[in-house]
Amino acid sequence: IRDMLQNAPDTIEIGAPLAKSIVDEILSSNRATLIEMNDFAEENNDGFMQYGEEYSYDIHPLALSPGFVTMLYESYIYTGGAHGGSYCIGQTFSAFDGSLVDLDMFKDGSTDKVLALIKKGLMSQYFKVDSDKEFYNYLLINGNKLPLPATPPYFTDKGVCFHYQQYEIAPYAAGMPKCVIPFEDLKPYLSEYARNLIADKL
Predict the structure, then answer these.
(1) Is the confidence at residue 43, as pLDDT, over 80?
(2) Which residues have C-beta within 8 Å of that of residue 114, sequence separation ≥ 6?
(3) 106 pairs with which residues across the strands?
(4) CA 201 to chain CA mean position, Å
(5) What would you report as the CA-atom Rg of the chain, rounded to the nearest whole angstrom?
(6) What single string gives the DSSP state of each residue in 45-62?
(7) Under DSSP, is residue 82 helix (H, G, I), strand (E, B) or coil?
(8) How far is it, in rounded angstroms, from Cα 88 to Cα 3?
């Protein structure tokens, strides 16, 4: 996808082939399951059980600035069972060379300090709790050790967003915990590379 975006003379021109390639991949990887479910539905058409699948995808720009571009990917997949699964993944790109911005936005050795800010952000912004006990009661992690999200943090207009996926640290009912830490709060832990990308924000 990144190669398509970088090599296309006009990004509007790649919309249709990009969408087609995603749909083709979904159909190809799930063809056997779809055929099996269709056969089952035809053999059991008394209305007692209904089977179906749903796939929903959306990719859109979240934040645009002189130094960076952040795209947000959101999806919902249902293949049967009690409920479907959702994903929300952000990715920031340098506006100067198109490179991906990942954990390299932080200085080496700053992880613990950043995690402390994430914990504080989750408590105040998402879970709305004041004590560690209330906070960890919401979570499914062992040893009260909050991990970094599996997906990369990403820049927004207000700061850096840390977004956990379903079941990553909390039960399904808790949704997808996230928080946005202001750039100014993270400034001491940002690499020179990251500070250059958000120079207009500091």
Answers:
(1) no
(2) 106, 148, 186, 189
(3) 190
(4) 22
(5) 21
(6) TTSS-----EEEEEEEEE
(7) coil
(8) 22
Q: Which pLDDT band holds residue 47 (cuts at 50, 70, 90)?
A: very low
Contacts of residue 75, Cβ cutoff 8 Å, sequence gap at least 6 = 55, 56, 57, 58, 86, 87
Predicted TM-score of the model (pTM): 0.75
Question: Taking a C-beta distance cutoff of 8 angstroms, is the pair 140, 169 a contact?
Answer: yes
CB atoms within 10 A of CB 30: 15
Question: Can you give the length of the chain in residues?
Answer: 202
For residue 86 the two structure tokens come to 């959702």
**Contacting residues for 22 by C-beta, under 8 A, at least 6 apart:** 57
Q: Give the pLDDT score at 56.
A: 81
Pairwise pLDDT comparison (28 vs 51), residue with the higher score: 28
Report residue 12 as tokens.
């509007």
Give the confidence band of 11 by pLDDT, cuts at 50, 70, 90: very low
Instruction: List the structure tokens of 25.
Output: 């991949």
- Tell me, what DSSP letter sits at residue 93? E
Contacts of residue 124, Cβ cutoff 8 Å, sequence gap at least 6:
179
Specify the higher pLDDT residue, 8 or 118.
118
